[in-house]
Design a protein that fits this description.
With 232 residues, this protein is an alpha/beta fold. The chain is built from 9 helices and 10 strands. Strands 6-7-8-3-9-10 form a 6-stranded mixed beta sheet, with helices on both faces. Strands 2-1-4-5 form a 4-stranded antiparallel beta sheet, with helices on one face. The structure holds adenosine-5'-triphosphate (ATP) and magnesium ion (MG).
């Protein structure tokens, strides 16, 4: 479904992501692990078209999307949950969800009931300003907002950062459920090893803007294997 080949990007003259190669098959849940500041979010933003690539190619559903604008990629079926969740604090829960649909006019799922089924708490709080939600509720809202756009691929950048441990597994359960029920493919960045183990079938390790390892099969259950990619 997604193939990233030799991707390079960065800021001004500083190259952050270099020669990055990643592949995700339809229906998979794939994670990316790596220490702070090594370019995970820069990669994700390049994938979403928020930062231009300076080399390499991104293929999504067999189409070369390397030069497409961010909104075109969203329209083409890539949903995005930015690091820190990126909800609009002064808008209500429902308005945030409707924004998720408006980004994706042609493919939006107008029926907010689908996300309310996954996150019933958001329905109760639909008239509440997003800025007043708890961290966990904001994470749920961010995932829900991306779902309203009806994506084929959901990209999450540290979705559970800064939320309580008991809510971490709630978000992970729901993302897995969505993958199973609707068949949405998932690519997520995480530093929380437990979550990587719970959620993903495969994990790429990143360092200095590159993929330096791929953890598959039983190795993903091995804490020490994953841990080495977070150690300095
Ligand atoms: N807007 C920007 N302008 C210039 N440099 C930036 C910008 N954003 C990030 N960087 C730099 O790019 C490098 C990679 O940052 P990035 O946010 O991609 O890391 P990360 O792996 O996502 O880290 P974390 O785990 O802390 O989220 C860092 O050195 C950072 O300082
Ligand atoms: Mg980041």
């Amino acid at each position: 479904m997604l193939k990233v080949q030799g991707l390079q990007s960065g800021y001004d003259k500083v190259i952050v992501v270099r020669d990055l190669n990643i592949e995700v098959q339809e229906g998979e849940i794939v994670s990316i692990i790596g220490r702070n500041g090594i370019g995970k979010s820069t990669f994700v933003k390049t994938l979403m078209g928020l930062i231009p690539s300076t080399n390499g190619e991104i293929t999504f559903k067999e189409k070369n999307i390397t030069k497409l604008k961010a909104y075109e990629r969203a329209w083409f079926g890539i949903g995005y949950v930015p690091q820190g969740h990126g909800t609009f604090p002064t808008l209500t829960v429902e308005e945030n969800l409707l924004m998720g649909g408006s980004i994706n006019k042609d493919r939006k799922n107008n029926d907010l009931n689908l996300v309310y089924e996954y996150f019933p708490k958001l329905k109760d709080r639909r008239k509440q300003k997003a800025g007043t939600l708890s961290g966990g509720e904001q994470a749920a809202l961010a995932v829900s907002r991306a779902l309203v756009g009806n994506p084929d691929l959901l990209v999450l950048d540290e979705p559970t950062e800064g939320i309580q441990p008991n809510l971490v597994s709630h978000i992970s359960d729901i993302v897995r459920q969505i993958n199973k029920d609707i068949g949405i493919t998932v690519l997520f960045v995480e530093q929380h090893i437990g979550l990587i183990q719970q959620m993903s079938q495969r994990c790429y390790a990143m360092d200095k803007g590159q993929v330096v390892g791929e953890i598959v099969g039983d190795d993903i259950k091995d804490y020490s294997v994953l841990k080495q990619y977070l150690a300095v």
